[in-house]
Specification:
By secondary structure, the chain is mainly α. Helices cover 81% and strands 0% of the residues. It is globular.
């Protein structure tokens, strides 16, 4: 007689297999939704210069999605010039919570791929997960509040099987005060739009530096191997 495996890992696997088609459809839909929002924001000037808080709300999706393709700081500084900092923080925080719920769902889907499972069971990743599990909530609070790159934690919480509710609570308690401080700076100093645009472009270029460096190193290595 076979025993049922009631471990958390087994329950996650069973849940994934039961809803695999639905999850695949949801995964594709989520990706298309965020990419469409990003394309719309980048291609329509009237949207980029709009003072509607709905724009800030929907901008939170591409700004907080997976690897965070666009920075949120310049946009929050911009809206901080026109609205009370608390209102800006709450709107940006609400959008961020939904975006992080999407991130969790997508990484949850990806985490069952065979390659990801192999990576999860390597000694290095196990050590990182064990280290995170010693104080997961404080670690999330610090990482989400400070300027450090947050995207590794989005995948780490899924690998560590950290509950979605606690993850979103940590995001709420850390991101909202961060957004408030940024909006407060925008409200107090009224930074000119051209400086905000320069900051926006600068942050994107700074985020691309590691990828460009790795690409150049790879090309140099290929040339040296071919020589």
């Amino acid at each position: 007689m076979k025993r049922k495996n009631n471990s958390p890992s087994a329950s996650w696997t069973g849940e994934y297999q039961k809803h695999s088609k639905a999850r695949t459809f949801l995964f594709i839909l989520q990706i298309i939704f965020v990419l469409a929002l990003l394309a719309l924001w980048l291609s329509v000037e009237s949207i980029r210069t709009s003072k509607s808080l709905w724009i800030l709300f929907f901008y939170s999706f591409p700004a907080e999605f997976l690897l965070s393709t666009v920075p949120h700081e310049p946009v929050i500084l911009y809206f901080g010039k026109f609205f009370p900092p608390l209102k800006v923080a709450l709107v940006a925080g609400a959008g961020t919570l939904l975006a992080e719920a999407l991130n969790y769902s997508i990484f949850h889907y990806i985490s069952f791929f065979s390659r990801v499972q192999k990576v999860r069971h390597t000694k290095f990743v196990k050590k990182i997960i064990d280290l995170f599990n010693r104080a997961p909530f404080p670690a999330l609070l610090v990482a989400a509040f400070t300027p450090v790159p947050f995207y590794p934690f989005r995948f780490l919480v899924v690998l560590a099987r950290y509950p979605l509710g606690k993850y979103l609570l940590a995001i709420l308690l850390s991101r909202t005060p961060r957004f408030f401080l940024i909006a407060l700076i925008g409200y107090a100093f009224k930074i000119p739009d051209y400086l905000l645009l320069a900051l926006f472009v600068g942050l994107i270029l700074a985020a691309l530096v590691p990828y460009a460096t790795n690409f150049l190193k790879k090309k140099r290595r290929e040339k040296s191997d071919a020589a």
